[in-house]
Amino acid sequence: MLEAMESTRLEVKVKPNARRNALTLQEDGSWLAEITAPPVDGKANAALIALVAKHFGCPKRAVTVKSGAVSRRKVLLVAPHS
Questions:
Q1: Which of 12, 52, 69, 81 is exposed most, by the fewest CB atoms within 10 A?
Q2: Which fold has domain 8-78?
Q3: Which pLDDT does position 82 carry in this prediction?
């Protein structure tokens, strides 16, 4: 659970059309997100936001894509919540 006063920045590599939904911390400090959704019409981004929110126990509205909306490498911001 994230409880910082500032937004937490996550560097994520997204693997769309995966067999499962999973979020894994990599050795370099970045995250690997395996998403079953296809990279079409924002479906993968929506699934990524839902996955990150579930993983960190926060509402989906607390997670935003800061950069890389159409790339496999993204930077996400997770806002603090109560």
A1: 69
A2: Conserved Hypothetical Protein Mth637; Chain: A; (3.30.1200)
A3: 57
CB 15 within 8 A of CB 35: yes
Mean pLDDT computed over every residue of the chain: 92
Spatial separation of the C-alpha atoms in residues 50 and 59, rounded to whole Å: 8
Under a CB-based contact definition with an 8 Å cutoff, are residues 81 and 64 in contact?
no
Look up residue 35 and give its amino acid.
I
Query: What are the pLDDT digits (tens) for 19-47?
Result: 999 999 999 999 999 999 999 999 999 99
Residue 11 pLDDT: 98
**Strand ranges, E, within 1-82:** 8-15, 22-25, 31-34, 63-67, 73-78
**Residue entry with tokens 């936001």:** 49
Which stretches within the chain are classed as H helix? 43-56
How large is the average pLDDT for residues 2-19?
86
